[in-house]
Design goal:
Blueprint: E1 13-20, H1 23-26, H2 36-54, E2 57-64, E3 68-71, H3 73-78, H4 80-87, H5 102-114, E4 120-127, H6 145-161, E5 164-170
């Protein structure tokens, strides 16, 4: 009749989940229904719901291209459509889905995870693994795609040394395996 509550050993986790929303993920024409981004949204929603239902610890969500945007947990638990709507401005500029800055996004999420008390920290990245500068950027201050790749390759070991596991879920390309 009476049960003693059992403390789960898994509640001591802090999860950070990143979603790449660059042009290569969205695809030409911004077709959100059949793109890698659409599949990533579905996976992000399903993973978030599963982690929340397991009461496994804290969950932090963000999307990135050249800008880092946090995603409220309540939105991610609603639906993949709610996530997409929270990320998309009503009037999208043609160049809205430009390049991406992985190193900055990973560093930002690592900073958030390090503020958590969870002993186990896990960062999951949904991406096609293609760091790219903003299309048409001719500003010498912009990093080239090669420079962004080097920055990403330098950032991941720093994050791992801080005790954060980094998992990449690749969508459509093998580039993810390089990091």
């Amino acid at each position: 009749v009476f049960q003693r509550p059992i403390k789960s050993q898994f509640k001591d986790y802090a999860f950070g989940i990143l979603l790449d929303m660059s042009g290569s993920m969205i695809g030409m024409g911004g077709d959100l229904t059949h793109s890698k981004f659409a599949y990533a949204l579905r996976a992000l929603h399903a993973l978030t719901v599963a982690l929340k239902n397991c009461a496994i610890g804290s969950i932090h969500l963000a999307a990135f291209n050249q800008v880092y945007r946090e995603i409220p947990l309540a939105v991610a638990l609603t639906s993949e459509r709610a996530i997409a709507l929270s990320l998309m401005p009503e009037s999208m500029a043609e160049d809205y889905f430009g390049g991406n800055h992985y190193h900055f996004a990973l560093r930002s999420m690592a900073k958030t995870l390090m503020q958590e008390r969870g002993k186990q920290k896990v960062m999951i990245v949904f991406s096609d693994g293609r760091p790219a500068c903003e299309p048409g950027c001719y500003n010498p201050a912009c990093d080239s795609t090669e420079m962004l790749s080097k920055k990403l390759q330098a950032e991941i070991p720093k994050i791992r040394r801080r005790g954060i596991q980094v998992l990449a879920l690749g969508l459509g390309y093998r580039e993810v395996t390089r990091y």
